[in-house]
Amino acid sequence: MGSKNSTAGKRADALRSIEAIVQAAAECLGQNPEASLSEIARAAGVGRVTLYAHFNSRAEVVDAAMSRAIERGNEVLDTVDLTGDPLLALARYIEAGWHLVDQSRALLVAAQRELSAGRIRALHAGPAARVEALVARGRAEGVFRTDLPVAWMVNVLHAIMHSAAEEIRAGRLTSGHAADRITTTVLAAFTPPGTPVPEIDGGACL
After folding, report:
1. pLDDT band at 3 (very low <50, low <70, confident <90, very high)
2. What is the pLDDT of residues 133-150, one digit of tens each?
3. Looking at domain 58-205, which CATH architecture does it have?
4. Could you tell me if 144 and 180 are in contact, meaning their C-beta atoms sit under 8 angstroms apart?
5. Whole-number Å distance between alpha carbons of 111 and 67
């Protein structure tokens, strides 16, 4: 009985350590993509030995922090209304999605350095599936172009979001203007060839 309780206690301690490390990694890497494992361990209140007992490499720590950020981001995106006019729904998605990218842009830089492109795509599968459904609906309703694959269009949208993050880091764009710039650019990319690009203003399509 005592052994079982001891094992359960050790497991609980391990889970607490892992949670503290992932939380610290998200915070440290969110401020500095080059934050070291020593800094992360110190912020988590654990030693490097404890950190390495749970994670084999910096890449694993970054992966866990990125997974956590995307999981929480998915919770936010779940609250976004993607029904109704596809153009307005797209604008709402961009507004919410951009804020998530903006909040985690330093963490994303760390992920791009440590993780493979395939792994980053896999981590973004949830948000990608959500917007793929929206793009497919917009195509069916004749609002979005149909001459390009849906997956490519979704990739373009997310690439523009990530480019906006880079522009902010370079000082060429402010966070307050990013969502409008992204929406304008994406609408131009998604509009069927030969069709005037719609403008969205005050919650209505002009």
Report:
1. low
2. 999 999 999 999 999 999
3. Orthogonal Bundle (1.10)
4. no
5. 10
**Cα separation of 188 and 12, whole Å?**
52
* Domain spans, the chain: 1-55, 58-205
pLDDT (0 to 100) of residue 89: 94
Q: Shortest CA distance to 80 belongs to which of 53, 67, 98, 107?
A: 98
User: Could you read off the pLDDT of 13-63 as tens digits, one per residue?
Assistant: 888 889 999 999 999 998 899 999 999 999 999 999 999 999 999 999 999
Specify the residue for token string 């992920």: 111
Spatial CA neighbour of 35 closest among 135, 101, 107, 139? 107
Distance (Å, whole) CA 133 – CA 150: 9
CA distance 86 to 134: 7
Q: What is the secondary structure of 87-152 as a DSSP string?
A: HHHHHHHHHHHHHHHHHTHHHHHHHHHHS-HHHHHHHTHHHHHHHHHHHHHHHHTTSS-SSS-HHH
Tell me the CATH number for domain 1-55.
Answer: 1.10.10
Provide the 3-class DSSP secondary structure of residue 84.
coil
In tens, the pLDDT along 81-96 reads: 999 999 999 999 998 8
